[in-house]
Every structure is written in C-alpha cells, then in structure tokens.
Design a protein that fits this description.
alpha/beta, five-stranded parallel β-sheet
C-alpha cells in the first residue's frame, strides 16, 4: 500500500505540486473547486503580471512541457492559464489525477479531535479525512499528506475599519465587486458608467484606478486608508509594470484626471441602498464625506480560507494569519520587495499537525510579497525533505 497525497487547488502551485508527486512516484489526487484548472487566474485574466514568463514557469513545468513560454514578456492571467496551466493539466502524467468541481470543505485526522494526541506518533500515523463537495453530492476521501494550495482570491477582505464589515456592507454584498474590473470587455461597454467608489491602495486597486480612469463615462471616488500613501514604490524597481502603476497612482492623486478624486486617510463607516445606487459614509483626512455611487469596487486584499483546517493543529500567526513558523521568518527578514524574499527551508513550512502544509499564496497570509517562484521553491523543499525521510515510499520498503 502506498501513501496518498491530497493537493488542494489546481492553480500554478498546485499543478507544480502534482508534477512533483508524479516525478517522485507518489500517488496523489488534485482537487479543484472550479470548472477548470486555474480558476482564480481566469477571474483576473485580463490583467498583466509584473513578472515575466521566466519567473512564472518552474523548472519542473518546463521539463514536462518543453514548449512552455519563456523570456522577459509579462503574461496576463489568461495567458498563464491557457498557454501554461491548461497544457500541463492535459499531460498524460496528470491524466485521471485532477478532480474538477470538487471542493474540499473540511479536513480532519481520522478518528481524532483537534486537541487529541498532541505531538504524538499516533496522530502522525492517522490518515486525514477530507470532506468533499462534488457534483454528485458529499463524499469523503483519505490522504496521508495534505498540501493546501487553495490560494486567497475567493476570500476577499471586507471594507469596514479594522477589518470587519462596515454597517450595511453584508446586506449589499451582492452589489459590491471584489474582483479586478475588466474595463476592456467590449461586450459590456457601459458596465462601469457613472460613479465608482473604489476602496484600496494595493496593486489591484491601482490597476482598477488606472483602467477606470480611462473610461470617459466614469467618475472615480478613490478611498485610500493611508494619509500619505507611497503606492508600494520600490527604489530602482526592476519590474517596469509595477513602477508604471506607482507613477500612474501618484499622477491621479495629484489631480492628473479631473474624473478621479483620491481621498486619503479614508475609512468606509457605513453603506446603505439609495434607490438603484449606494450611499457610502466615509471618514477622510478632510473630514466626513457622503458619496452616492453607482458601483462599489472593494479591492482591500484577500486572505485564505482557514476554516478548512479548523480541526487540525495549525499554529497561525496572530498578525498575518499565516502559519507561524513561516510568518515569523518572513516578518523577521529584511525588505518588503517580493523579488527579495528569502528561501526559508522546510522547517519554516511545517505545522504542528504532521504532514499538513499550507503552500503558495495562502502560506503568506496577509503579507503581499508572494511570488509564484516562491511557491515553486516551497514544492522543491517539501519533496526533497520527504524523499530524504522516505515517508512516502511503499509500505514495507
């Protein structure tokens, strides 16, 4: 009997993990909640990455797909999905291993509660039970090693001060956009006409501000939490697309477009319906403001779904929500540029729960410095450590 690996999420890191398992001869199943692989990437497929192909294709991917794109051009999310991840998912190596439209709803140790057998061999030897939501109803599966690569994009942060929903926000959730607007959709040219309240200051919000500002029928009221935002500027930035966004955001804040108003020191205090529109009450650096808008675009970041492993012994950082070992190492490292992230090794990835790992963007919690290259390195570190420990060899060998 061989031990089985469960990989959650068929994005870039999940697919790279699947290839690593295939290379090592480990039996595995890749679970994906979406209708296709790379569902999160497709949700912002119109946007372009700051990093080039050479930073987004792992060595393992290139070995399995020698014709994978290469070079210094920066792909869009759709490019990454259709030119890299779709061909990888179609390889014979992964045939029959990917279960689409199958969401992992929860993970437990078979027969054990969260507080039982802390740090014991008994707990480490018990298999995991996965609760699955499938097209045919609920089901379960077992695994001996679980890699949570589910990402963050399906779990947006809320708008209110301090990270909780603003009053009225939950009732209006179906009228709030939490994904990057596709303003180039020629089939829906009037989608963003009127006044847009844009909330957030990160790269997604900056991209949305740039794109919405280019629409002649759109006015943007941009609420930014910082009183003197630096727009994430990196001295001597080697990523031209990222620097361009910084420059554009600075120009918009300085009044370069009379249809864009930037409110610094802004917090959304409440939302309420106003007929077909939405009334937002803000506190800003310049005092209270009421904005009646046609659209609310909330791009305040994303965090992973921690409910998946609430019955496991996972030690989360109290500041970032990421696994404690990794978060402590990242918070203690110098610099905030994603290109300068250190390689921290397998011990930083381990949880108190044996054989359970959170990898990819989700492993960084609220930190925004994750690169796909980092996720591929995590897979390298994990597979090397498990091969050395011979934990996934056939029983009896």
């Amino acid at each position: 009997m061989q031990r089985h690996v469960a990989i959650l999420g068929a994005g870039p890191v999940g697919l790279d993990a699947a290839l690593a398992c295939a290379d090592a001869g480990w039996p595995f199943t890749l679970y994906e909640a979406g209708d296709t692989v790379a569902a999160h990437l497709r949700a912002w497929g119109h946007a372009r990455l700051f990093t080039p192909w050479d930073l987004n294709v792992s060595g393992r991917m290139r070995a399995h797909l020698p014709g994978a794109p290469a070079g210094g051009d920066c792909p869009t999310g759709a490019d990454l999905a259709t030119r890299l991840l779709d061909p990888l998912a179609a390889l014979p190596t992964l045939e029959g291993r990917i279960r689409l439209r199958t969401r992992v709803a929860g993970i437990a140790r078979t027969g054990l509660l969260k507080h039982e057998h802390i740090g014991t061999d008994t707990r480490a030897a018990a298999p995991f039970t996965l609760l699955l939501d499938t097209p045919d109803g609920e089901d379960t599966a077992e695994a001996d090693l679980v890699l949570d690569c589910t990402g963050t994009y399906s779990h947006p942060n809320t708008l209110g001060p301090g990270g909780i929903p603003a009053p009225g926000e939950r009732a209006l959730t179906d009228r709030i956009t939490h994904t990057l607007p596709d303003t180039g959709d020629t089939g829906d040219t009037g989608r963003w006409a009127g006044t847009v309240l844009l909330v957030g200051a990160g790269k997604s919000a900056q991209t949305a501000a740039r794109d919405l500002a280019a629409l002649p029928g759109t006015r943007v009221q941009w609420a930014v939490r910082g009183t003197a935002p630096d727009w994430g500027a990196v001295p001597g930035d080697t990523l031209p697309g990222r620097q361009h966004l910084v420059d554009t955001s600075r120009a918009l804040a300085d009044g370069a477009n009379d249809r864009v108003t930037v409110h610094n020191g802004a917090h959304v205090q409440a939302l309420s319906p106003d007929g077909d529109r939405i009334r937002a009450c803000l506190t800003t650096e310049g005092g209270p403001r009421e904005i009646v808008c046609d659209h609310v675009v909330a791009l305040t970041g994303y965090t992973g779904d921690a409910s998946l492993y609430r019955q496991l012994q996972v030690h989360e950082c109290y500041a970032t929500g990421a696994p404690m070992n990794l978060s402590a190492a990242l918070l203690g490292s110098a610099g905030g540029d994603c290109l300068a992230q250190p390689s921290l090794g397998i011990e930083a990835l381990r949880n108190p729960e044996p054989h359970f790992f959170i990898l990819g963007a989700k492993s960084y919690g609220r930190l925004n410095t994750f690169l796909l290259r980092t996720g591929y390195e995590q897979i390298d570190q994990l597979t090397a450590a498990y091969a050395e420990e011979s934990l996934l060899l056939p029983a009896g060998t």
